[in-house]
Amino acid sequence: MKAIIDTISPNGNAIRFETPEEPLEELLKHLPALERKLEAAGYMANAERHYPKTPSGEPICPKHMEVMDAREKQGDHWFSHKVLGENGQPVMVDGKPVYCRGHAGKLSPGWSY
Ligand SMILES: [Zn+2]
């Protein structure tokens, strides 16, 4: 048996780790240490799979409660939304709207707003 761990790297990429085949008892012994190592290296559980969803299946940012749109660029795909300020207008930095991907990360600056 092997385990598959879907994560988001410190750079914001979706990274999948696979453990070698081993008996379940051994796997369960090794997993907590592996998870701690990944967490210490800045890898986060892939929250995308666990986002709350609208009835039509669109993911909702758990922090801002905004519906996120699917984006795609050069083979990468992700979900994001514009961060809105208290006045309901998009938060702008250097003349550009700030985007949040629904998790913390280098490519998700809006998460901290
Ligand atoms: Zn958000």
Name the descriptors:
single chain, 113 residues, alpha+beta, 2 domains, three-stranded antiparallel β-sheet, 15% helix, elongated
What would you note in describing this structure?
This protein has 113 residues and is α+β, with helices and mostly antiparallel strands. The chain folds into two domains: 4-45, no CATH class; 52-112, no CATH class. 15% of the residues lie in helices and 27% in strands. The chain contains one helix and eight strands. It has one helix at residues 24-40; strands at residues 4-8, 14-18, 44-45, 69-73, 76-82, 92-93, 96-97, 99-100. The strands form three sheets. The protein has a three-stranded antiparallel sheet with strand order 2-1-3, with no helix packed on it. It has a three-stranded antiparallel sheet with strand order 4-5-8, with no helix packed on it. It has a two-stranded antiparallel ribbon with strand order 6-7. A hairpin with a 2-residue loop joins strand 4 and strand 5 (76-82). 13% of the residues are buried. The mean pLDDT is 88. The structure holds zinc ion. Zinc ion binds at residues 61, 63-64, 66, 81, 100, 102, 110-111. Zinc ion (ZN) is lined by residues 61, 63-64, 66, 81, 100, 102, 110-111.
Average pLDDT works out at 88
Could you give the order of strands across the largest sheet? 2-1-3
Number of strands: 8
State the end-to-end distance: 42 Å
Basic shape: elongated
Helix content: 10-25%
- Compute the number of structural domains: 2
Q: What letter string, H or E per element, gives the SSE order?
A: EEHEEEEEE
